[in-house]
Amino acid sequence: MKILMVASEAVPFSKTGGLADVVGALPQAVHALGHEVGVVLPLYRMTRLDGAATVFPGLTVPLGAETCFPAVRALVQHGVKFYFVEYPAFFDRPALYATPESDYPDNAERFALFSRAAIEIAQLDFHPDIFHCHDWQSALVPALLHSVYAKSPARAPVLFTIHNLGYQGLFGREMLGHVGLPEHLFHIDGLEFYGKVNLLKAGLVYSDAINTVSRGYAREIQTEEYGFGLDGLLRHRSLVLSGILNGVDYSQWDPATDKFLAANYSPEDLTGKQKCKLDLLKVFGLPEARADRPLVGIVSRLTVQKGADLIAEAAGELMAGDLTIVVLGAGDAIYEELFRKLAAQYPEKVAVRIAYDNAVAHKIEAGADIFLMPSRYEPCGLNQIYSLKYGTVPVVRSTGGLDDTVQPFDGEGGQGTGFKFGSYSGKAMMEAIRAALALYRKPKLWSKLMLNGMRQDYSWGASAAHYIQLYEGLVTARGR
Ligand code: ADP
Ligand code: GLC
């Protein structure tokens, strides 16, 4: 089979979050199972290309009243062909989607051009049996195949993956004209959403099948609480909606081989982990003497999704505990400020780095004892899966993929991998943290818990096989 993925970010070319980890690793895993995979990405300012060939010096892409001529470059990496849509006016910017203050105002045009270019690439070069689109930035692919490109030979079935229902790509109705989408798509069973154009909704309506990145989240998004206004539609499409848990790329995230660490370690020999802890304290300017206390790590986009308000709510109680906290994150100004304040108030206990820094993210996974992820919702979550591998015990809210990947430790029975809490409250979070801190004082049980996590296997193989089953089902159905 030939699969063409379309996404707005992928490691190692561009990244703001877990989507990039997934689109960086899944294609390789699908390729390893015997399929041909292409990936279409925008060429951003942050994208570094070595040895890419120019496939098209200028595609002809109509965009409303204008015609644009994006170039396309490509390279093959680990057997996967990556295409880059080069259109500097749209993508040569400091960030992928937004300034620190707000979204780029022309995001509709940017990702419409990108989606059309992806279909052109399919038509002129890759000839896929199936498209696999990720999140709202690529959601115009199925809408265009359904309308403007209905007669195109590239009209293959589409699988649409929801990585995060909280980001929908909402725009005013006038965008239809700006990007050349027919007005007749603007109705309640199409891409209209309370008087606006909702690109994610277009993806959900016009794709042949939908999945999200854990089974738990696939259930949750069909409820009002987690559905972001699209739960009715998702219930309506439940027969073609499934959950496939993300894998993780252990070639990047394994303490035995991780090149960012002060020392490597494995379940057979954990001694390096203490060195990583000392190194982490140093990186955050905290005294070495704190090494005998439990060290809690956070790596997160600082947005409403990730539960920082619970930390604010419970700050007093949290700081009364005998622990140290290191935070790496960037995002919304209010949450950045919140952590800065905590660090200023409790300088000996809390250290914060407001930044995006991959090396430090790895150092936290390795050097911390506990990893805190109190998310309000979490489609899959990768950091807690990395934490398991690094023997860093996750404390998570039981939602979405967090609930699916962390099993509560049952104490004397010795089973389980972490700690969970249910209700979205500072009190519930503190109970889970207190349970973790109490167990930390029982070294034998704590080691058991760490090793349980380290021995879990969340590599991509099984998930990639699920995707292939889905692709095959759609291709066969289309052929009938
Ligand atoms: P999400 O995609 O919702 O942000 P995930 O847990 O799926 O959450 O993935 C987050 C990814 O982004 C992980 O690879 C994590 O290490 C990385 N990450 C998040 N924030 C930062 C940061 N401030 N610096 C470096 N890496 C980060
Ligand atoms: C999203 C989700 C996260 C998930 C990632 C990759 O950004 O917030 O939970 O792990 O996508 O699928």
Lateral arrangement of strands in the main beta sheet: 3-6-7-2-1-8-9-13-14
How much strand?
15-25%
- Assign an overall shape: globular
Q: Count of DSSP helices?
A: 18
Structure, explained:
This protein is α/β, with parallel strands linked by helices and 480 residues long. The longest helix is centred in the N-terminal third of the chain and has 20 residues, at 107-126. The strands form four sheets. The chain has a nine-stranded mixed β-sheet with strand order 3-6-7-2-1-8-9-13-14, with helices on both faces. A six-stranded parallel β-sheet has the order 17-16-15-18-19-20, sandwiched between helices. A three-stranded antiparallel β-sheet has the order 10-12-11. The radius of gyration is 23 Å and the shape is globular. Strand 1 (2-6), helix 1 (18-32) and strand 2 form a beta-alpha-beta unit. Helix content is 37%, strand content 19%. It folds into two domains: 2-247 and 460-478, Rossmann fold, CATH 3.40.50.2000; 271-454, Glycogen Phosphorylase B (Rossmann fold, 3-Layer(aba) Sandwich). Adenosine-5'-diphosphate binds next to helix 1, strand 15, strand 16 and helix 13.
